Amino acid sequence: MTDLDDGFLVEITIDGVHEAMRAGRLTARQLVEFYLARIAAYDKAGPSINSIISINASALDEADALDAKYQASGLTGPLHGIPMVIKDQGDVIGQPTTMGSVLFAGHQPNRDAFALAKLKAAGAIILGKSTLGELGAGDTHGSLFGSTRNVFDFERTAGGSSGGSGAAVSANFCTVGIGQEGFSSIRRPAAWNGIAGMRPTAGLVSRDGIYGGWPSINGSLGPMARNVRDLAILLDTLVGYDANDPITALGAHRIADSYSADLTVGALQGARIGILREPCGYATEPDSDDFKAIDEVFSRAVDELKQQGADVVDPIVIPDLVELLSKRARSATEDDESFAHYVSGSAAPPFRSRREAMVSEVFKGVSRGAQARWSAKPNQDSYHDYIKARDTLMLNLHQVMASLRLDAIVHKAVEHQPTLIADGLNPPFRDQTGAIHINTFLVFVPSVVVPCGFTRNGLPAGLTFLGRPYDDAAMLRYAYAYEQATRHRRSPSLGPQHVQ
């Protein structure tokens, strides 16, 4: 197909795939073959982005079956023939779930996670599993795969913990991807790889069959894509009540009729947007040149919001923001309970408890960061202080939005440029620098990240739209309007290889 030589499939959207299918220019098999060739050329060779842990051996067969269905009756669903990658902590029948760790090497859970089954029912092809921060957290390093590279600077990290999905989507190894966020884990790799990403309000998307789910409530499954409309199309399919993830009861009656149907280019006209400028990212360094490089891009983005007719309130101040965010703490029991809940649904889990895993010989091979997280002993008093701080900050946030009549708050996705891989693997272990986690600290507020330009060093930066609980549809509308007006997304140059 000569269109492939012209770069026809690079940057293609979900709508673009379906338009090409209707025009007879593209089949699901051809699309899968295109992505597999790019993965071979750029992920496994060339710059060796290293974003894919495993490939679905049945992907071409699934594509053939979808092509046959298309010839018989047209599209089978809104994601018909769309190849996507899944952060490797979600279960898909016939594919391993490894968490990027030697602890789960060869783990075959033999089930579909609830939300991922919905994607497959809508016609999606799960092309493969993407790299992640080992055991679902931290930067994208793991004992099973090594480190994932940033697609705009191969010496820098892709971010974490959904760095594999972020890099793969940006590099056009798939049409769209799925990440999971507990601490800027979708938004940071989205911003650092120059794509859009979303952490939906907790309770909209089930985490059953996802490592790091119930009874923990702060982790959320979310879409990652090269454009906001594809985020919304994915979210339309992902949402839904699931009795096996009780938190979804809170979102069951808050689901929008459609997240993709009401996207308009004029959504920012008259929208009242508060600009949060106070430095509040993890280990942020406001006096550094690195911070200032991002700040320059952010200031230009604020001007672009004004140009689109937004009523900008700049700056806003959320009382005690930094002090309250510093209270983040883990539960003394939640991690153990969440681990046990996940493995209880697996056909053959390698371990039945975190304790069993930690005393095994295999645990010695786990990466330094993951070992440190698992070995840290949570303090119940600190966790209690965190819960109080979370309630206080939620009230403070709502009061600011109410008193200033704000429709959304905009802040930097990350306050620093992507860090060097070497700095994350060696002392002082620079990791997650500048990551802002207001949404995951509060749990029940949505965030959407969209590209907002490049720094003077040629590295991507992102803008975050943050809203009230279950105001996900509005955040998508604002992000879409900004994206369509500015078009900051840029496809990375991965090298001289020519993919046929």
From TrEMBL:
Pinpoint the Amidase domain residues. 31-476
Q: Which UniProt keywords apply?
A: Transferase
Say if the entry is tagged with keyword Transferase: yes
* Pfam families, per database record: Amidase
SUPFAM superfamilies found in the cross-reference section: Amidase signature (AS) enzymes
Q: Which GO terms describe its molecular function?
A: transferase activity
Q: Is Transferase included in the keywords of this UniProt record?
A: yes
Checking InterPro entries in the record gives: Amidase_dom (IPR023631), AS_sf (IPR036928)
What's the source species for this entry? Rhodopseudomonas rhenobacensis
- What is the designated name of this protein? Asp-tRNA(Asn)/Glu-tRNA(Gln) amidotransferase A subunit family amidase
